[in-house]
Every structure is written in C-alpha cells, then in structure tokens.
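Dear support,

I submitted the protein below through the web form. The confirmation email said the job was done, but the results page showed an empty box. After a refresh the structure appeared. I'm attaching both so you can tell me whether what I see now is the final result or a partial one.
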Amino acid sequence: MQVRGLLLLLALILLAATAEAGKNKKEKVKKDGSECDDWRWGPCVPNSKDCGLGYREGTCKDETKKLKCKIPCNWKKKFGADCKYKFESWGGCSAQTGVKTRSGILKKALYNAQCEEIVYVTKPCSSKIKSKSKAKKGKGKD
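What the results page shows now:
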C-alpha cells in the first residue's frame, strides 16, 4: 500500500514538472515582446559593395526591426536576391544576335519580395566546344 502511494506521488510530481516545462517553452517563443503578426520586410541591403553581409528592415504598425541577412556574390542582380527561379536549359545559339536565351519561372519569393513571374536571361554563345568527358585528377592508375 505504501509503495502505491509513493508511486502515485512520484507520478504527480513528474506530471507537474513536465507541465511547468511546457509553459516555459511557450513563453520563450515570443522573446522579442512583439505582438504584431503582419511584418513587411524590405530588401536585403549589403553593408558594403553589392553583396555579402547586410540587413533588412521590417515594419509592423509602429514597430521596426532589423534582421541580419546575406546576399550571395553570384546572385543575378536583375532579379534580386529574394526571388528564386527554376530555369530551363539554355536554348540554341542565335546566329543573328550571337546569344543564347533561357527562361525562369518564379519558385519562391522571400520576405514578400515583388518578383516577376517569368524572367529571361541571355549569354553570349561560346566559341569553344566543351568536352563532355574529363579525366578526374588524382583518380586512376598509379
């Protein structure tokens, strides 16, 4: 009888401890103290030059925040770093213009960015013919 009472007391203590831990986790979610849910974020602005580390500013009602962000240095400046596209393969080389063209369809717009649904990119035709099979360095016969 005493063993049952001890086990019941232990179970109640364990239940109370887990309930208190659950409350602490919920309180930690809103650590910034903001009650606003409708944040509008601007573009990522690099600290120097046109790529690298920077920040983006957000507004919601009377509140403003700055978040750290990063613009990759190989991004397509025409589209913006917050617009992600799925591109087709390059088309054939145009003899008249000397360029290849391909299109991209919007896959994702980050931070409510204003992105074009379809974009077109061009690049000069290559005069070199690339070989498909290349020997891997460091692999093979000794």
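Response: this is the final, complete result; the empty box was a page-load delay. The helical segments are 2-29.
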